[in-house]
Amino acid sequence: MLGTYTIDLLADPRVHREARSATLSVRVTPVHLKRPARLGEDYPTEVRVYAVEAVELNPPDDVEAVHWRLLTTHAVLTYEQALSIIQWYRWRWHIEQLFAILKQRGLDSRTRL
Length: 113
Description:
Elements: E1 3-9, E2 20-34, E3 46-56, E4 67-72, H1 79-104
Antiparallel strand pairs: 1-2, 2-3, 3-4
């Protein structure tokens, strides 16, 4: 474990989640992914990625623990680098939620103004 990280989780009435803080343990390990058999030899035999795992410590009894497994091609050797990967993931999630709302309301990102 590289360290711990505390986040504030927003309330989400869709899944009956109340706002709360969660403390996550942060771990990292390099992983070698082998080339799929269907790909030709023009591709590398393996790719090195880093697995960043963030697991909630001591979640409340009545809720599912936060558990993120993130893969990145960015080198992750330090606690600070792991936190950057986690933050990027959180930002991406917010951006995806924003685009989902825009599509629900009839606004398409491909439409020109």
